[in-house]
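Tokens for chain A. Residues wanted.
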């Protein structure tokens, strides 16, 4: 079964988090997101606001380090990376607000050194 992808507020940028198969938190600033994550929009928004306030380098211009980070590139479900972190954010170092909203979204692959992710092409687990 494929994962259903939706956006909570079409036309507005929305950051969401996942944990890849290697256990690394991954920030996505693209739409859409896995439908089951939309039940937690307020918590996801709070995690994004926390990261913006406390770790502006994670989402500002230039390399977005240390978490793995992907941005939408204008095609729904396609996200592109802008740089590889030298030392990616480890799960044990992830802020609680981020870890809590990342855990329900588990890509079926490691983002590793992947530069483009097509979310609708088998990257995400289907919700049960």
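Reply:
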């Amino acid at each position: 079964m494929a994962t259903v992808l939706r956006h909570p507020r079409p036309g507005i940028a929305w950051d969401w988090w996942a944990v890849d198969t290697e256990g690394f938190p991954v920030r996505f600033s693209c739409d859409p997101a896995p439908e089951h994550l939309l039940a937690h929009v307020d918590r996801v928004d709070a995690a994004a606001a926390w990261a913006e306030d406390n770790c502006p380098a994670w989402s500002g211009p230039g390399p977005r380090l240390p978490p793995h980070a992907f941005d939408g590139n204008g095609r729904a479900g396609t996200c592109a990376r802008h740089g590889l972190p030298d030392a990616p954010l480890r799960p044990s170092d992830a802020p609680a607000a981020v870890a809590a909203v990342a855990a329900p979204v588990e890509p079926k692959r490691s983002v590793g050194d992947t530069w483009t992710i097509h979310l609708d092409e088998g990257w995400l687990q289907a919700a049960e």
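The beta strands are 5-6, 15-19, 25-29, 33-34, 68-72, 78-81, 116-118. The CA atoms of residues 18 and 118 lie 14 Å apart.
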